[in-house]
């Protein structure tokens, strides 16, 4: 795959450093309390690259009793955080992951992945595949026949890629991705970032920043038509039987994700699709109780948990 030229990389690296600094300041102001007193266990997942590992947080349900076939086996949800493919953010979905573990009774693996511009496409996708294959290394704990993937923003893109372009090879390895949940994901990077608009934007990602993020992740614009970059361009038949997509009315990324949800409708596949009114991108992070954002977060998270419980009923 293409890499950045030296001076382009230097420019992108400087901008990335500034964006990451601002993002860290914003994260420091957010409420990081975990519901239900579920503390994650930090683990390291072996990468395909010798000597490198992928950080991940493991969330166990309060009960350690088996809910599936075999001793101790449980369904597993693998989640990827938002980042614009640039900003480190492992842990930003802690409230979501802890709540899913507690209320759905399944194990959640919140996995990190490499970021651009230092590691452009396909580095993140490779880390996604490695994290999923790692499930097979713990056969007494995880049920590889009951696997779901989820993600927010860029993480939602990666979850959709995992459940489409990567799904067949993972199935041959013994991993059955039967459900995908994507929350305000970018799904079509072949559309130029500045061309993405909505009638009533709410705190939209500036077009210049969005274009820069795309440049960091995909140095060669031609790769943006690759379904591993733009899951909207993947064949619908590749996706699992359960697809849940949540978009935000005020988010400029919503039209492409809405179009994907519409495209996947029909046949035996169940498509859960909600556009949250008046919400901006990343509305659920740091929202205060009693606010419209809080109410929409409660609706979205509750809907996701209900969907997962229906997909993976307790035996």
UniProtKB/TrEMBL annotation:
It comes from the Eukaryota. Residues 1-28 form the signal peptide. InterPro entries: AB_hydrolase_3, AB_hydrolase_fold, GDXG_lipolytic_enzyme. Residues 77-283 form the Alpha/beta hydrolase fold-3 domain. Pfam families: Abhydrolase_3. Gene3D superfamilies: alpha/beta hydrolase (3.40.50.1820). GO terms for molecular function: hydrolase activity. The keyword Membrane does not apply. Keywords: Hydrolase, Signal. This is Alpha/beta hydrolase fold-3 domain-containing protein. It comes from Neoarthrinium moseri.
């Amino acid at each position: 795959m293409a890499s950045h030229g030296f001076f382009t990389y230097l420019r992108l690296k400087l901008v990335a450093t500034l964006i990451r600094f601002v993002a860290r300041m914003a994260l420091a102001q957010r409420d990081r309390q975990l519901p239900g007193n579920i503390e994650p266990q930090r683990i390291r997942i072996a990468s395909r690259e010798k000597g490198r590992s992928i950080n991940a947080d493991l969330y166990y349900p309060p009960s350690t009793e088996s809910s599936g076939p075999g001793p101790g086996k449980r369904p597993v949800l693998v989640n990827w955080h938002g980042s614009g493919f640039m900003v480190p953010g492992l842990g930003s979905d802690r409230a979501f992951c802890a709540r899913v573990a507690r209320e759905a009774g399944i194990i959640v693996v919140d996995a990190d992945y490499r970021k651009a511009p230092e590691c452009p496409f396909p580095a993140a996708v490779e880390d996604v595949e490695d994290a999923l294959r790692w499930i097979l290394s713990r056969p007494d704990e995880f049920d590889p026949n009951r696997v779901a993937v989820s993600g927010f923003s860029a993480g939602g893109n990666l979850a959709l890629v995992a459940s489409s372009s990567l799904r067949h090879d993972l199935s041959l390895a013994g991993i059955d991705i039967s459900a995908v949940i994507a929350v305000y994901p970018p799904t079509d990077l072949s559309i130029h970032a500045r061309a993405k608009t909505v009638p009533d934007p709410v705190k939209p990602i500036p077009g210049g920043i969005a274009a820069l993020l795309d440049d960091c992740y995909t140095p060669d614009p031609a790769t943006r038509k690759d379904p591993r970059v733009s899951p909207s361009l993947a064949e619908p038949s590749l996706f699992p039987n359960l697809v849940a997509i949540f978009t935000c009315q005020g988010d400029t990324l919503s039209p492409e994700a809405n179009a994907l949800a519409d495209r996947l409708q029909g046949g035996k596949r169940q498509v859960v699709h909600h556009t949250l009114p008046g919400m901006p991108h990343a509305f659920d992070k740091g929202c205060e109780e009693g606010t419209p954002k809080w109410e929409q977060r409660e609706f979205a998270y509750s809907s996701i948990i209900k969907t997962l419980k229906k997909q993976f009923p307790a035996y």
